[in-house]
Amino acid sequence: MKTTFLPTLLFFLTISSVSSSQNAVQDSIMLKKLYTTALTDGKAYDWLDYLSNEIGGRLSGSIEAESAVKYTEAELNELGLDKVWLQPVMVPKWTRGFKEYAYIESLAGDKTITNICALGGSVPTPSLGIKAEVVEVKGLDELSALGKEKLSGKIVFFNRPMDASLINTFEAYGGAVDQRSRGASESAKYGAIGVIVRSMNLRLDDLPHAGAMNYGDTPANMRIPAAAISTNGAEYLSSLLKLQPDLLFYFKQNCKTFDDVQSYNVIGEITGSTNPNEYMVVGGHLDSWDLADGSQDDGAGCVQSMEVLRLFKKIGYKPKHTIRAVLFMNEENGLRGGKKYAEEVKRKGEKHLFALESDAGGFTPRGFNFQTNDANFKKVQSWEPLFKPYLIHYFEKGHSGSDIGPLEGNIDVLAGLQPDSQRYFDYHHAANDIFEYVSKRELELGAATMASLVYLFDMHGTK
Amino acid sequence: MKTTFLPTLLFFLTISSVSSSQNAVQDSIMLKKLYTTALTDGKAYDWLDYLSNEIGGRLSGSIEAESAVKYTEAELNELGLDKVWLQPVMVPKWTRGFKEYAYIESLAGDKTITNICALGGSVPTPSLGIKAEVVEVKGLDELSALGKEKLSGKIVFFNRPMDASLINTFEAYGGAVDQRSRGASESAKYGAIGVIVRSMNLRLDDLPHAGAMNYGDTPANMRIPAAAISTNGAEYLSSLLKLQPDLLFYFKQNCKTFDDVQSYNVIGEITGSTNPNEYMVVGGHLDSWDLADGSQDDGAGCVQSMEVLRLFKKIGYKPKHTIRAVLFMNEENGLRGGKKYAEEVKRKGEKHLFALESDAGGFTPRGFNFQTNDANFKKVQSWEPLFKPYLIHYFEKGHSGSDIGPLEGNIDVLAGLQPDSQRYFDYHHAANDIFEYVSKRELELGAATMASLVYLFDMHGTK
């Protein structure tokens, strides 16, 4: 035994290394095919053009959202998939109404109009608007120290900027967005009559950025209106407050929350050739805010997800496991689509292995975040070298995506495409999130990067 | 001996590892400082705003180039450097003259105006323009097969697109640009009377992209005019030629080459604290094409180089070796500044250790190319982990930069900042290379990335 052990081991090592290097060659060829097809014969950009320029902003419950459901269902049907269907989901319907109006009134009575937008979910102001003194704070934690005495009857102005020193702009967003989401509910406790929140934007410009807020358990009669102000507007207001702490701020908005309405997740599927009852998901969210097309957030993620399926069909790759593109409805102000999809997975006992979301813009892809255990992560990381020719270097643990989040606990691996984040918040939820600012190549590289990861998962899994 | 060898080795390993981990901690702290300062208290964007919007396109020999020399010299003087000076260099002066004019004339006599621009260095057309039949080719190698019989008296239309399947767009550029640089000189050999070249642009749009061409040893009386046509124009012309191979193309341009004029490289220096006679260079080129501001090419590289010096002053880092920011003149159509700088280095026997150029746009930095030997490259690569928090993952051997290229052979390491290249050729040499398309954060990240590499080189060298 002793004499044969070493050669046997070497033999097995050789076999395994030959087989793994054969795999690597085959995988490299497949990735090259996926990238080349996406870059030279892609469809994502045309789809996004239609979604953005023919349909437009797709706020849940809007006619545009309905159009987008029909359009993407029809386009998926064109791909010759094994199954395309709509998954019903009830969604909130909130509308902005007339354009908001706001001004700063100096002690001398001069009025300077400033750009605001109602935050999603906010109540309207009274029909004549509200006018009050302003208390500027840098965060929620300052409110209790100020107390009712200082805040009652006032408009609270949340003006903590996103931290520009953070390299990942999503971290900077995470560190500032509590002002937007909870500013109104917290301020109401101290008798404030409205809140104005500095837009979640790292650069200085004139565009207010929408986004969801929620009132938590604030009773309906205690709810106060909340709006975002542009970063330039916030800087200006702040500088004026230093000169005239008693100046007045006026704003008016007539947004409205309606009863929930019927909508849908749009799903296209290629049934697995050998493991049809094991599922992989790629997705983005079909709804957007209403101030622009929502091309980056998240038209890009939707067309990239559709493109993954199209690329597989185009290059003739038949996945072993069932793969679905899921265009989730209502990520922005309810996450109803993501929750509904996960509920249905659970109800039907569908075995989900893997889900990948693209919801961070159509910028140059840099890599992926993964939510999974260490063993799976190690396996996934072993594929990273295959991505090097495509300048994909980032494989880290981290948040995957909001819509696929509800699958956690019922799935092996959740992943999120990580595009370059530097410009994302220039556009996020603002009037300039339009098709013009999406680069065709960057969008296509993202789709190819997603398809490549799905392919590798399909071939090698995490077992 | 035998008994003490292992502990001794371990002792040295421990010492060396402690010292190297102390270095790593100190280096990490310094990089963090450089990035934070660039992102929260940077000056590069303001400088670029001025260069782009107050001065504009800076073609060699133009009044704008002269203004840019004065402006950057003055701004470097503001930084309190040890030395700021102008290095005289004679540069070519070529001017575009009146806007070019071109149309496609169908057999029925319909004329369709199309967007062209004269290529840099081209001769003008006769004052009435030229009109001739068009021969479309995909490259220089088709010319000899066509021969004088097919090409004499014709306009040659070079229409080989950049290869969209290449991930690095500079490779795609390298694979297509011979049509622009040598199309006219090669076509003239076969009696062609003009050339039209598809713009070096990966996307389809209406903008012609300028850029240098040269006539090589073509005698003056044999030189034919050369222009770029927009990618949309090229596609359109090509599709019409399929229907009407005999259609006519007309173009008129009145560009002109003057005698060389006096210009300057602009140089700012912080003298090294311990090795004042050993030099490190950061640079970009101050000249640009004339159709736009040249914000990406290469205003970005200039202000980033200036920012490297400013960041060192700002955080109070005193480099051991002398560091110079060199704003080279005339990269675009002559490289006179780069050659002059290298000549002077040689003439004065200045010992240059390291040069880093930024001339690939102000986009998110991804890493560096290095031109150096294996030993130096290995040393440089050992710093790569320090860049991981800043999402810099690309340390490869490759082309550094045109302006610092002439230093090769007289320097240890040449490096080129590698920003994300996906959008570079959307703007390159075209009317849309303007300030608006530069992201402040991306520009600042590039400057911090350059400063970090210079700092590491200054601290650890390649010895």
Keywords summarizing the entry:
homodimer; 463 residues; alpha/beta; Aminopeptidase; Glucose Oxidase, domain 1; 2 domains; 8-stranded mixed beta sheet; 13 helices; disordered N terminus
Give an account of the 3D structure.
2 copies of one chain form a homodimer. The first copy, chain A, has helices at 2-40, 44-55, 63-78, 143-151, 169-174, 178-188, 231-243, 295-315, 336-348, 374-381, 384-387, 424-427, 440-460; strands spanning 83-95, 101-105, 111-113, 116-118, 130-137, 155-158, 194-198, 226-229, 248-252, 256-270, 275-285, 321-328, 351-357, 365-371, 394-397, 411-419. Chain A is α/β, with parallel strands linked by helices and 463 residues long. In chain A, the strands form 2 sheets. Chain A has an 8-stranded mixed beta sheet, with helices on both faces. In chain A, helix 2 (44-55) packs antiparallel against helix 8 (295-315) and helix 8 crosses helix 13. The radius of gyration of chain A is 25 Å and the shape is elongated. The interface between A and B is medium-sized, with 27 and 27 residues.
